[in-house]
Amino acid sequence: MRASLLDVNCYAIAAGDGAEGSACVLVDAGYDCADDLAEVLAELDWHPVAILLTHGHADHVLGLPNLLERFPVPVHLGRPDLYRLEDPAAGVSAQFAQALAPLTQGWSAPDAHAVDDGDVLELAGLTLTATLAPGHTEGSTLYAIEDPAPAGDGPGEVLVSGDVLFAGSVGRTDLPGGDPTAMTATLAALRDRQDTPVLPGHGPATRLSHELSTNPFL
Fold it and tell me: Is 78 exposed, middle or buried (0-12, 13-18, 19+ CB in 10 A)?
């Protein structure tokens, strides 16, 4: 589903055929995602076991309090971005921070488990391998999510790219903590990955091979 604040993509991912009663992981927490996501999960009868945050920007984390109220599960975030949970408005432009002020009033930083480069998480029957991918933020993280028993001709692996890679574009590097040099190295390393579907933080899904051959930033 897509949260209204900056159209953040919020995902629920389950193993196999996603049968009723399946465990799942949630990815990113857009400001107003909780109600719609809870409705979708109730229809599917899926049960979250964790929330993965691709990075600590406000548009991807402000929905955490409402989401955790409904689903009190562990939160995982790249270690270099943990500090961003203390004040989500601090990591954006001054103009956007002013616009966020009403949304961050009374904010209390939720607990989060630090994710380091190369960490492998076994959650909801899925194997999730984290790769720190700095550039957009210091702690931006790619998650390669492997399903050991994909249904039918479904993909055995997907890459959750957050705001590192979009269909036809890449994440900006001009906000606090952004680093163009680090982003160049992060994007270059994508050429060494196997081809998979890509689930970005904004916009439509794509494939890595398609982006490597058509994305002007790659």
Answer: buried
Residues whose CB falls within 8 Å of the CB of residue 55, separated by 6 or more in sequence, listed in order: 77, 78, 81, 84, 136, 137, 139, 140, 141, 162, 163, 201
Mean pLDDT calculated for residue range 189-194? 95
The tokens for 178 are 């952004």
pLDDT digits (tens, 9 = 90+) for 66-110: 999 999 999 999 999 999 999 888 877 777 777 777 777 778 889
**Cα angle vertex 158, ends 152, 161, to 5°?**
160
Residue 129's DSSP bridge partners are: 120, 144
Length of the chain (residues): 218
Query: Residue 50 is inside which H or E element, if any?
Result: strand 47-53
Cα gap 152→121, rounded to integer Å: 24
Per-residue model confidence (pLDDT) at position 154: 67
**pLDDT by residue (tens digit) across 121-150?**
999 999 999 999 999 999 999 999 999 877
| Mean pLDDT estimate for the chain | 93
Residue 130: exposure state from Cβ atoms within 10 A (0-12, 13-18, ≥19): buried
Q: Are 145 and 152 in contact (CB under 8 A)?
A: no
- Number of neighbours of residue 75 by Cβ within 10 angstroms: 19
For CA atoms 107, 56, 102, 32, give the dihedral sign.
negative
β-partners of residue 52 are 27, 76
Residue 34, amino acid: A
